[in-house]
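Entry for the shared binder. Reason: the reviewer on the internal report wants the predicted structure included alongside the sequence.
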Amino acid sequence: MKRNTLALVIGGAAVMFLAVAATACGDTITRVDDSGGNQPSGITVSGEGKATGKPDIALITLGVSKEAVSVEAARSGAAASLDAMIKSMRDNGVAKDDIQTEQFSIQPEYDYSNNKQTLRGFRVTNVVSAKVRDIDKTSKVVDDAATAGGNDAQVQNIAFTIDKPDELKKQAREAAVADAKERAETLAATTGVSVGEPVYITESGGGVPVPLYYGGEARDAAGAAPATPIEPGTLDVTISVTVTWSIE
């Protein structure tokens, strides 16, 4: 039993010696082993790409809020005002299919005084969203609709988007991959290896943001209401990628 134990110890020492000797010979071998997880081995980096374009659609949210002593009076008043606003938008070229109801509510309104709650009336709120595809007419669409709705009119917000952002997404995607590869090559050069083929790619982002605009009605010194200034500006499409390259 003692001889067998000694032989095993000597054999283990010999293996350790060979491993040390191989390291001391000066030959540098870079190898990345798969750890057994789902993530492939190699150089993994993230990259980001951005493309900028002009919006071509305005998204308007507007409607009416009407208070009256009875539900029917509030409802009929709100309906008349909103019908006038919708007709105004249709007259300005907004398609029927591009107008959609977003909110409808009927709520009691109370006065509170001397620790007493008194029913004052009822409020009807009816809100629609509309797509203005002729973006240059956005100001006119908003102003005319607000005028048509009278004192019951509300303009809650305006947003802008791009109807077909596919080309911008393509540009952003190409820029993101190029950014990731540049980062990978920098890491590879720093560690003395080369970047091989991509073996794993994921993507995120790519949505078109819709920044909101909101502003009150301005009036000039003479009291007349000028056209509401609305500027669509530009929008950024951003895409992020994570890429794993093999090491050569």
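Summary line for the report: The longest strand covers residues 116-132.
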